[in-house]
Amino acid sequence: MSGAAVATAGARAPGLSRSMSRSRRVKDRAFRASLWACGFLALLPLAFIVWYVLVKGVSALNLDFFTKEPAAPGEPGGGIVQSFVGTALIVGMAIGMAVPLGMLAAIYLSEYGRGRLASAVRFVAEILLSTPSIVAGAFIWAVVVVAMGTFSALAGAIALTVLMWPIITRATEEILRLVPQELREGALALGVPRWKTIARVVIPTAGSGIFTAIMLAVARGMGETAPILLTALGQDFLTTNPVAPADAVPLRIYNYARTPVLSQHAIAWGGAIVLLAAVLVLSITARFLANRQQRRIR
Amino acid sequence: MSGVEAVRQEALTDDLGSRRIEVHDLNAWFGSLQALRDVAVVAEPQAVTSIIGPSGCGKSTLIRCINRMHEEVLGARVSGKVLFDGQDIYAPDVDPVEVRRRIGMVFQRANPFPTMSVLDNAVAGLKMVGRLSRGELRRRSEQALRQAGLWDEVKDRLDEPGGKLSGGQQQRLCIARALAVEPEVLLMDEPASALDPASTLRIEELIQDLKTQFTVVLVTHNMQQAARVADWTLFMLYGQVVEFGPTRKIFTSPDDKRTEDYITGRFG
Question: Whole-model pTM?
Answer without folding.
Answer: 0.84
